[in-house]
Amino acid sequence: MTRIGEVNSFPIHTFIVLVLIGFFARLSYSMARTPVLPLFAEALGATPAMIGMVVGISTVTGIFFKAPAGTLSDLYGRRTALLASAMIFGLMPFTYLLVYDYRLLMVIRFFHGFATAIYGPVAMAVIIDISGEHRGQWTATFSSISTIGGLISAPLGGGLLYLVGGLNPEPAAFRFIYLIVGVMGSISLLLVLAMWRYLPSEASPEPPTLWVVIDKFRRDMVAVFKDMQVLLTSSMEAVQNLTVGALEAFLPSYVISIAGLSSFHAGVIWGIQLVVLVLLRPLMGRISDIHGRKTLITWGMLLCANSFLLYPITHDFLALCALTLIFGAGEAMVTSSTAAMVAEQSRSRGYGTSMGVFGSLWDIGHASGPMVTGFLLGSLGYIPSFGIISAILILATILFQLFVRETRGCR
């Protein structure tokens, strides 16, 4: 088996295995979320603020557990961590069949979030380990291909929900969708078990003691949080994810309640954003490898801020699709470059902890998006709420331009 340290000869088997596992994991996890989850919470009687909590709570898990997961994978090996995440992907979705109250739905979402909290930083650390100087290209390619699962999930979940439940589905229709979600998640678990020998495992023969783990985590965390370059760069994707989280939570309700379209239209609109990510991320990652990452991140943030601002004044289906194309292009520019830039800013440390902190900040933004937007919508409405969040993106972009330096020369 090709080991993760071999970067001159790219270990394509490891890459393909991770892509397959990531595809089915993302398909399952994303299908459980957009557009089905906020509509399920609404059908169970949740208010806009509570819908935001239901959608955002799973991301809160990642805020607290991604950094420890990354550190543990540095010490004990990536393979064990990947198995733990796959077990949650495969088993947790079946608990949605027991949901009869949105408060229980919130609890289940919190525990379901452990799947991505573990998988996200560990898989990204593996890709960075094996990709050498082409980090932007391979991290973006991995993210892009894995996103295909999410691309299929949005229209698939929305379309199935419409077929089963019509325009106003009852809770039973949602439980049928979550049964399918469980089947998809189980495939990722079976793939981990079937392809075990291709997964990287660089753990030491004698696993470290608990105190060694705690000490390494403490030292790595102190080093990361003293590095303002890493924190500001990671925060760019976190701030951009304010808009992603807000759209995941409230675009379905907006499309149906305000624009007068169906859950299928909501799934298609969100699917367009994922199509753009799949197509543009590898290209943008390669561009950032050659020409640098800072400019690409800046322009991506501006595209996201301006397109997000226009959503609440748009009602036409094709116009909403066009806005989503622009938003997805901006997201591809940001997300293709931030992880690689963080890795270059933290070369002297293990990538696991840095990717964990990066993922935690990402999750803070992702979780805050639906929660903040839910509270704003309760008192201000769509246009002022979306305007405030767009202003936050623009302010963050200005700070990034002023205080973050490019960490690599153009090649």
What does this structure look like?
The protein is mainly alpha-helical. It has one domain (12-197, 217-403): Up-down Bundle (Growth Hormone, Chain: A), CATH 1.20.1250.20. The protein contains 15 helices and no strands. It has helices at 12-31, 36-43, 48-76, 78-91, 102-131, 135-165, 171-194, 210-226, 228-258, 263-291, 294-310, 317-335, 338-345, 351-379, 382-403. Helix 1 (12-31) packs parallel to helix 6 (135-165) and helix 3 crosses helix 8. It is globular and about 55 Å long. The protein starts with 11 loop residues before the first helix and ends in an 8-residue tail after the last helix. Residues 1-8 have low confidence and may be disordered.
Question: How would you summarize the topology of this molecule?
Answer:
Blueprint: H1 12-31, H2 36-43, H3 48-76, H4 78-91, H5 102-131, H6 135-165, H7 171-194, H8 210-226, H9 228-258, H10 263-291, H11 294-310, H12 317-335, H13 338-345, H14 351-379, H15 382-403
Helix pairs in contact: 1-6, 1-7, 2-3, 3-4, 3-5, 3-8, 3-9, 3-14, 4-5, 4-7, 5-6, 5-14, 6-7, 6-10, 9-10, 9-13, 9-14, 9-15, 10-12, 11-12, 11-15, 14-15
